[in-house]
Design a protein that fits this description.
Largest sheet of chain A: 6 strands, mixed
Number of strands of chain B: 2
Number of helices of chain A: 17
Helix content of chain B: over 70%
Strand order of the largest sheet of chain A: 6-9-10-3-11-12
Shape of chain B: globular
Distance between the termini of chain A: 34 Å
Structural class of chain B: mainly alpha
CATH class of the largest domain in chain A: Alpha Beta
Helix content of chain A: 25-40%
CATH superfamily of the largest domain in chain A: P-loop containing nucleotide triphosphate hydrolases
CATH architecture of the largest domain in chain A: 3-Layer(aba) Sandwich
Radius of gyration of chain A: 25 Å
Strand order of the largest sheet of chain B: 1-2
Number of helices of chain B: 14
Largest sheet of chain B: 2 strands, antiparallel
Number of domains of chain A: 2
Oligomer: heterodimer
CATH topology of the largest domain in chain A: Rossmann fold
Order of helices and strands of chain B: HHHHHEHEHHHHHHHH
């Protein structure tokens, strides 16, 4: 719906933010109308967060003006933005886990009765009123850490409304939600706008933008490259604006030709860092020449499953066989030596050594072998040679093997890991969140490489929180919920709706 | 958390409560039995328990105020020792016990400010920061202490009228010197402030999730500074207790590890003031008991072994409880604004 004739509640005029050596935002103009949902689309690193942080008072603009409700403002901290009715729901929730909903909501703007004593009863009443007024079901006395993420997000929205926010900034709010929870969020967003709350919705998911936005702004390398109305747009047209060239959103692949089973998991039990059972009796088989995708909301045991089968986590019970060998109690190196490639979920923590050079990072799985080492002596010339070949082959930028891993962008870091893992003989590839937080161009590249591995007869296990990624890559889809594989579907039967319901724990 | 996990957690809470009740019952029966068979010794041991526990409670309160806001204070020992020394000097040179107590409080606060400066502003490793304070305090007090200084009196017990006449309870609770009374009040005050006021809510938020506090406009650095400084002054009160109330003079390294025992007390007490008080009573009892056992001379064990009792208890408690209590999530991590 066109709401551009309504009053403007927030306006950015020529906003520019310069960090040392980087122009993060370049002369950005943006208007938000009352009761409007403005989707802000852009890849990671396009400058969305910088822009929002300026509107929320976390950064001071280098140049340009911010106008809120017809008044020019200078925001030097979030408190001043809050006072003017701007509320922000951060991508990483800003909630204190062991405290209750009501405590979290009032934190910083507490209701007190004489001598700083907290008036919990009043706070609980206020939260209840807000949740009724805006249809945000939540129990004010529940403790945050016991609540599902979808509910935690509602608490974040209530937190903003409690501070009388009528301009809401939602930063990648659907990243942690199931498709059903996301739909519930969209309903909430529409209810809010019906009561004249205006929303800026930041995302890189094209489907969502088309589903919920009144208007779309697209950011690319720090510039506002255009605005569009959802009714005139398609996913492809938006993707082109976002990336600046033609992109293929669908993964192109032929039908799989599965061979022998490579990975066999029987009744696997694993616990998480806190000692709770995380994987509770998983059975899985992955065959040579196929991609098995694991779908599921994060925190349902996927991480622990991957860590168990790559030797990083102790296995409580059950059996893992790789290529016929019992690897249940193998060390990570023994497993690697069998021909297992691993793209870990957290590339900066488990994938790379950040202060090492690219050439060193590219031999982390084989530095101890010839030709890279002989006995105790490392051969740096061979290591650099290997690095140079891979940097070229995988188009890593900057193409300098002596650059430090920490100075690369997310997409290029991921390419270094992919280059290292794919360049040694592989029978099984375990890829956890292989394209998280990287640009569309790199996603395209990595997806192609994964499919190429499959076509070479590698068994591939892909774990991803992005449902579209699983559905695009996989030949079979396994859905994990609460530590179990609740269903395995051939890709032809795995519709978004069906998998979404399974991810939420209902039996479809 | 699944409902099953919640049920498990709840039943674990019940289990702890039942064990606590049984333990409390045994202690109560033991006291009654002791009082019937030997009233004088029982009263003496219990009164001594309360006084021995005083510096431990204060030390633990100092620790928990800091840790609840996210700062580990391993320098309690040093803060106590330095405060004990300054309070002693103030007593020697002014003869005014009130001024001496204030000097102790101020010394603790200054060292608290120093710790906050190192860990909040300089973002130093907090364990190193605390160790700096401990070494500094031991070195400075040992260097400047001269033998032969005489104090001008110490804090005397004040009997609270008829309350002090109640058998057993009177002499134990209502016939104490001022810092011991102050400690009992402080336990209640800190509990109230921590769990029922705005300040407490903010303190706990800063210690659990500082960026959540920051995004709603709470100044994380300021909260941490003030908490650690207040904590320091409470440790200073513990130091003043040692020289002005318990002993009446200063000795080299007279804190004798109490600052570290206080940390064990804090952990055993699950970072709550009343928990710390209960835990400190247990340690105080161990100290009182070993003194009584050595004094009576009835046991054939060498006195060094009896003297170990409180420290053995510390090791047992730490081995059994560290890792089981829930530690404030952000403790020990310097906060970096985004």
């Amino acid at each position: 719906m066109d709401k551009t004739n309504r009053p403007i509640v927030l306006e950015a005029k020529g906003l520019t933010k310069r960090f040392p050596g980087v122009l993060a935002n370049d002369n950005i103009n943006l208007k938000l109308h009352q009761g409007e949902i403005l989707a802000l689309l852009g890849e990671n690193g396009a400058g969305k967060s910088t822009l929002m942080n300026m509107l929320y008072g976390l950064y001071t603009p280098t140049e340009g003006e911010i106008w809120i409700k017809g008044e020019k403002v200078e925001l030097s901290n979030p408190g001043e933005a809050i006072d003017r009715g701007v509320g922000m729901v951060h991508q990483h929730f800003q909630l204190v886990p062991p405290m209750t909903v009501a405590e979290n909501v009032m934190l910083g703007s507490e209701i007190t009765s004489g001598g700083g004593r907290l008036n919990m009863r009043q706070a609980i009443r206020n939260v209840r009123e807000l949740s009724e007024q805006y249809g945000l079901a939540v129990d004010p006395t529940a403790v945050i850490e016991d609540l599902p993420v979808g509910t935690q997000q509602r608490v974040e929205i209530i937190k903003a409304l409690y501070r009388h926010a009528d301009i809401l900034i939602l930063d990648e709010p659907t990243a942690v939600l199931t498709p059903q929870e996301a739909n519930e969020l969209f309903r909430i967003m529409r209810d809010l706008t019906a009561q004249n709350v205006s929303i800026i919705f930041i995302t890189h998911k094209l489907k969502e933008v088309l589903a919920v936005a009144d208007r779309i702004g697209v950011l690319r390398s720090g510039q506002m490259v255009g605005t569009a109305m959802p009714e005139d747009s398609t996913e492809t047209s938006l993707a082109e604006m976002m990336v600046g060239r033609n992109v293929i959103l669908r993964v192109e692949k032929s039908a799989s030709k599965p061979g022998q089973p490579v990975l066999q998991i029987q009744n696997l039990h694993v616990h998480d860092d806190r000692g709770h059972a995380a994987v509770e009796g998983v059975d899985l088989e992955v065959f040579a020449g196929e991609i098995l995708g694991i779908a599921g909301v994060e925190g349902n045991g996927q991480r622990e499953l991957v860590e168990a089968l790559t030797g990083l986590r102790h296995i409580d019970a059950g059996k893992i066989r790789i290529d016929g060998q019992d690897t249940t109690h193998f060390s990570p190196r023994q497993i690697t030596e069998l021909g297992v490639a691993h793209i870990p979920e957290d590339r900066e923590k488990h994938g790379l050594v950040m202060p090492y050079t690219l050439s060193d990072n590219m031999v982390l799985n084989r530095y101890f072998k010839a030709p890279y080492a002989k006995g105790l002596i490392m051969h740096h010339d061979k290591i650099d040679e290997n690095g140079k070949v891979l940097v070229k082959e995988y188009d890593v930028r900057p193409p300098n093997v002596h650059a430090l891993a920490q100075n690369l962008s997310g997409g290029n870091k991921q390419k270094v890991i992919v280059a290292r893992e794919f360049s040694s003989p592989t029978k099984l590839l375990v890829a956890a969140q292989p394209t998280r937080g990287i640009d569309v161009g790199s996603i395209e590249f990595i997806h192609k490489e994964i499919v190429a591995q499959r076509d070479h007869g590698v068994a591939v296990l892909v774990v991803s929180a992005e449902l579209d990624e699983v559905l695009g890559l996989a030949d079979r889809v396994a859905v994990m919920f609460d530590g179990r594989v609740v269903k395995i579907l051939p890709i032809a039967e795995a519709t978004r709706e069906r998998v979404g319901l399974l991810m939420a724990g209902s039996d479809a | 958390m699944t409902t099953a996990a919640m049920a498990k957690a709840k039943s674990r809470g019940d289990y702890v409560r039942i064990v606590g009740l049984i333990f409390g019952g045994i202690v109560l029966l033991g006291i009654i039995y002791g009082y019937i068979t030997n009233p004088v010794t029982t009263t003496a041991v219990l009164a001594s328990t309360l006084r021995q526990s005083t510096p431990l409670v204060l030390g633990a309160l100092c620790g928990l105020i800091g840790e609840r806001s996210g700062i580990i204070n391993i320098g309690i020992e040093g803060q106590m020792l330095m405060a004990a020394f300054i309070a002693f000097l103030a007593n020697v040179y002014t003869g005014n016990l009130f001024v001496a107590v204030l000097a102790g409080l101020a010394t603790g606060a200054v060292l608290g400010g120093f710790l906050a400066f190192m860990s909040v502003t300089l973002k130093m490793d907090q364990i190193i920061g605390g160790t700096v304070i401990n070494i500094l305090a031991l070195g400075l007090t040992s260097f400047f202490y001269q033998t032969g200084l005489t104090t001008q009196g110490k804090l005397q017990a004040i009997a609270l009228g008829p309350l002090a006449e109640i058998p057993l309870i009177g002499p134990v609770f209502f016939d104490n010197p001022p810092i011991t009374y102050a400690t009992l009040i402080l336990v209640m005050v800190v509990h109230y402030v921590l769990f029922y006021t705005r300040w407490g809510l903010r303190t706990r938020a800063v210690g659990e999730h500082p960026s959540a506090a920051d995004t709603v406009g709470i100044n994380v650095y300021k909260m941490r500074y003030i908490n650690v400084i207040i904590g320091g002054s409470i440790a200073g009160l513990a130091g003043a207790y040692l020289t002005l109330e318990a002993v009446g003079s200063f000795e080299r390294a007279m804190t004798n590890g109490r600052g570290f025992v206080a940390l064990a007390v804090m952990i055993f007490g699950k970072y709550t003031p009343f928990g710390a008080w209960g835990a400190a009573l247990l340690f105080g009892f161990a100290v009182a008991l070993q003194t009584q056992l050595q004094f009576s001379g009835r046991l054939e064990i060498p006195h060094q072994f009896i003297g170990m009792l409180p420290y053995v208890l510390t090791i047992v408690v730490l081995a059994g409880f560290v890792g089981r209590t829930r530690v404030p999530a952000a403790v020990g991590k310097p906060y970096e604004k985004e």
